[in-house]
Amino acid sequence: MTTEEIVNKINAAGFQVEVNDEGPDPFIEVDRENLIATAKFLKNDPDLNFDLLMCLSGLDWPEYFQVVYHLISTEYKHTITVKVRCLKDDPIIPSVSDIWRTAEWHEREAYDLVGIRFDGNRDLRRILLPEDWEGHPLQKDYVPPTSWHKIPLTNLGAESTNEGN
Amino acid sequence: MNVLEPYMDLILSVVYLVGVLMFLTIFALLAVWLERKVSAHLQDRLGPMMTGGWHGWSQTIADALKLILKEDIIPAVADRKLFRLAPYLVFIGSLAGFAVLPFAHNLIGSDINIGVYYVIAITSLVVIGILMAGWASNNKWALYGAMRAAAQMVSYEIPVALSLLIPVLMAGTMSMQTIVQNQAGGFWNWYVFQSIPFSLVAFVIYFWASLAEVNRTPFDIPEAESELVAGFHVEYSGMRFAVFFLAEYGNMFVVSAIAATVFLGGWHAPFTFLDFIPGPIWFIGKSMGLVLVQLWLRWTLPRLRVDQLMHVCWKIFLPFSFANLLLVGLWVVLKG
Amino acid sequence: MKETKELNIPLGPVLEKWETLVESSGASGERMVLQMGPQHPATHGVLRLELETDGEIVTKIVPYIGYLHRCFEKVAENITWNQVVPYTDRMDYLASMNMSLGYALTVEKLMGIEVNERVQALRVITCEINRIASHCVFLATYGLDIGAWTPLLYLFQEREHIIDLLEELSGSRLLFNYIRPGGLAHDVPDGWLKKVREFCDFMDPKIPELNELLSYNKIFIERTANVGVMTPEVALTYGITGPNLRACGVDYDLRRDIPYSGYEKYDFEPQLGKGEQGQAGDSWDRYIVRVREMQESLKIIRQAIDSLPDGDISEKIPKNFNKMPVGDAYMTTEAPRGEVGFYIVSDGTKTPYRVKARSGAYCSVSVIPAIGTGLLIADVVAIVASVDIVLGEVDR
């Protein structure tokens, strides 16, 4: 199925989504209230059958956090990108880990590095960083610590862009 | 001379013990080198080539020196007394087995009339040492190794003992020297070729079960390095580790030598016209041949899982050994 | 012993086996917590598995990762677009060609670059040859974890040939930094393709040899067949891709299904696990799928060499990345350890706004509790080996 057909199918089921195909990957944007229902529909509809969550990325934009889901159907080989956003003072997004179990670890990673909280994830702990790490490194205003448990970390982030081009 | 007369036995024993110790040490150094070379050539590489010149012959001597000179580390939470004692208990277990090995018709530590029984009993001491080492290390991996070793060695004692009973039945004695003398006059008189197929089956069962007794692949689960890191000796270093190592290779020789004694004619030559070659050469040669097979198996086969190991012992080796023993008993009775 | 926190890791489909075992054996159910790793010979790097054991039976597995975390994604936000390539090499250091290919294709997708056929074919050749090298390491370490030493040494000889070839091509032996966004670092040296063809002829008889040595060894089959069975449902929900997914019998290969870099031109067959020695999706299937995949890779390499067109390998390399379009792109490729995807977001500057890497091994680690719970310690070792993880890729 093409993206257009997929989006038509989603809208026919009562969801109000619009496809944005400006970039190389067409995507749909959903509200976080509708995320779970949309995700369940995408997974369970026999014509769509998005059974594989390829990637779940958390992004820190100046005004809001965004989570991007890349889905593929191993049966029909069609893909869709779903984006959902939340405000920075309320960084909670419902978890899809009951729909695709792989989301559990990806959500932990997004929580660990970006700081988005996932409501419904059973095991929302830090995964890549130590448990007592402070802050979320992929936030744009993150300031690297100068030491951690008396280990100096002074070189971290000190040299940024060197002029490669 | 008269003064020494009452102590003659003691002096001879001490001399023999020192001789065996030297033999064991030299054998272990040689066997470790051999294992490296055999494994290397099986794996299409050269192994140690530099130390000592010819094919790295002194590599293991250098390694042994290194181990002896290393700092001896005892973990802070270990049970210090048991931790120190364990390697020596393992070592004594394997060393004591040498007492009844007949190197030649006049070269044996003690030709006691229950030699086979003695050797089965005394090598069981090893398992106590291993259990002690694993427990005293206060390390979970070591504990696992020790528990596995205990379960495995106690289980495999039974097929080993039952298989050794078959030559005993055929010889009618437990004395090692008499068993060897009964196999004189050419290889067709060796017990492994007598009463075919029973003794052949017994030999095969003995050989495989003895691999488990000495923790060699495919039965090396007590020290399975990819599962238990190093098993019971994970916390040992330096000289104590070297003692474990020595004991392991000593054990390899003991089980091979027992097989050579009771199944393969001991110090007898395969043909009578070869009798001019001294007995110890035949005896050590046969044992070394079996040791080489052990090495070959180790570098070829993967490792069994702990439940499969028990399955092999209790459901395959044990019924076969019992049936075998019964049939040999019948054979001996009918032959008269 | 320290009290472990109740972590509520959901248990997999084999838990019932443990419960029936406890019931039938009358065991008291006392547990011991065992830390497997981060320094353990069978965890392939610095993975830590917290095992809760009842005797030899593992009742709970909690993986801890991050010991090799470099925060590659944060670093990538501070460097220019093509400076990211060496960092992607360091993700799966055993298959760095495949890693940089994934990144290069993503950047090309965002910039709308179409590379010419010579570049595509050379990328296919180098990636497939690197895939063989990576599978060699997998098969070798798998054998080692089961207790077979000798295949390791044999397979590393084969790998050595590949590493020599790639060294001649790129100058380094592990992290090649050869595939760039828009093209390649440089063209192949004279006579290199002939050497690759010679390698293919050399490799062909090695695979039956390996089968004799390890694949069909009775003990090896006993240890791996019916161990850690992954059903297609479990595999898909945990995001397992690549050879691990095909071992479950799911016919899904990105090289054929969503072709990239000209894979549609080559004739090859994705290898599926059929449960020859046990159930489909067991550890033995995960092994044999990779053995057969090596043969398929050889097939692809031969076809690619035969049909290699001429062209300029650097014609599409961007002069600079100042004109990077604003937007995002996701591109997924078939790497030896499952699908590797890069999600890049550009705000039009010469540094990425966000680079997110999706790694196959990351998902493979997450499935270990689901398929390993209720088995023996030795089985957990076999499972960890069979899902083929490289911690550089897991931790990034």
From TrEMBL, chain A:
Any GO CC annotation of this UniProt entry: plasma membrane
Membrane topology: Peripheral membrane protein
Start and end residues of each NADH:ubiquinone oxidoreductase 30kDa subunit domain: 28-143
Entry GO MF terms: NADH dehydrogenase (quinone) (non-electrogenic) activity; NADH dehydrogenase (ubiquinone) activity; quinone binding
Assigned EC number: 7.1.1.-
Keywords attached to this entry: Cell membrane, Membrane, NAD, Quinone, Translocase, Transport, Ubiquinone
UniProt xrefs under InterPro entries: NADH_DH_suC (IPR010218), NADH_quin_OxRdtase_su_C/D-like (IPR037232), NADH_UbQ_OxRdtase_30kDa_su (IPR001268)
Enzyme class: translocase
Transmembrane listed as a keyword: no
Compartment annotation: Cell membrane
SUPFAM superfamilies for this protein: Nqo5-like (SSF143243)
Swiss-Prot/TrEMBL catalytic activity: a quinone + NADH + 5 H(+)(in) = a quinol + NAD(+) + 4 H(+)(out)
Pfam families linked to this entry: Complex1_30kDa
Keyword Electron transport part of the UniProt annotation: no
Main localization category: membrane
Subunit structure: NDH-1 is composed of 14 different subunits. Subunits NuoB, C, D, E, F, and G constitute the peripheral sector of the complex.
HAMAP family: NDH1_NuoC
PANTHER family cross-referenced by the UniProt entry: NADH DEHYDROGENASE [UBIQUINONE] IRON-SULFUR PROTEIN 3, MITOCHONDRIAL, NADH DEHYDROGENASE UBIQUINONE IRON-SULFUR PROTEIN 3
Matching NCBIfam families: NuoC_fam (TIGR01961)
Annotated family: Belongs to the complex I 30 kDa subunit family.
Function (record text): NDH-1 shuttles electrons from NADH, via FMN and iron-sulfur (Fe-S) centers, to quinones in the respiratory chain. The immediate electron acceptor for the enzyme in this species is believed to be ubiquinone. Couples the redox reaction to proton translocation (for every two electrons transferred, four hydrogen ions are translocated across the cytoplasmic membrane), and thus conserves the redox energy in a proton gradient.
Protein name: NADH-quinone oxidoreductase subunit C
Taxonomy of the source species: Bacteria, Pseudomonadati, Bacteria division LCP-89
Automatic annotation (TrEMBL), chain B:
Membrane topology: Multi-pass membrane protein
Family named by the database record: Belongs to the complex I subunit 1 family.
Organism of provenance: candidate division LCP-89 bacterium B3_LCP
Documented EC number(s): 7.1.1.-
UniProt name for this protein: NADH-quinone oxidoreductase subunit H
Reported function: NDH-1 shuttles electrons from NADH, via FMN and iron-sulfur (Fe-S) centers, to quinones in the respiratory chain. The immediate electron acceptor for the enzyme in this species is believed to be ubiquinone. Couples the redox reaction to proton translocation (for every two electrons transferred, four hydrogen ions are translocated across the cytoplasmic membrane), and thus conserves the redox energy in a proton gradient. This subunit may bind ubiquinone.
Recorded coiled-coil stretches: none
Record-linked InterPro entries: NADH_UbQ_OxRdtase_su1/FPO, NADH_UbQ_OxRdtase_su1_CS
Record's keyword terms, sorted: Cell membrane, Membrane, NAD, Quinone, Translocase, Transmembrane, Transmembrane helix, Ubiquinone
A Pfam family reported for this protein in Swiss-Prot or TrEMBL: NADHdh
Transmembrane parts of this sequence: 12-34, 85-104, 116-137, 158-176, 188-209, 249-269, 281-301, 313-334
TrEMBL record, chain C:
UniProt-recorded Gene Ontology molecular function terms: NAD binding; NADH dehydrogenase (quinone) (non-electrogenic) activity; quinone binding
Residues of the NADH-quinone oxidoreductase subunit D domain: 145-318, 323-396
Pfam families linked to this entry: Complex1_49kDa
Keywords per UniProt: Cell membrane, Membrane, NAD, Quinone, Translocase, Transport, Ubiquinone
Compartments, as annotated in UniProt: Cell membrane
Family stated for the protein in its record: Belongs to the complex I 49 kDa subunit family.
Self-association and partners: NDH-1 is composed of 14 different subunits. Subunits NuoB, C, D, E, F, and G constitute the peripheral sector of the complex.
Annotated function: NDH-1 shuttles electrons from NADH, via FMN and iron-sulfur (Fe-S) centers, to quinones in the respiratory chain. The immediate electron acceptor for the enzyme in this species is believed to be ubiquinone. Couples the redox reaction to proton translocation (for every two electrons transferred, four hydrogen ions are translocated across the cytoplasmic membrane), and thus conserves the redox energy in a proton gradient.
NCBIfam families: PRK06075.1
HAMAP family reported for this sequence: NDH1_NuoD
Name of the protein this chain belongs to: NADH-quinone oxidoreductase subunit D
Organism: candidate division LCP-89 bacterium B3_LCP
Classification of source organism: Bacteria, Pseudomonadati, Bacteria division LCP-89
Name of the encoding gene: nuoD
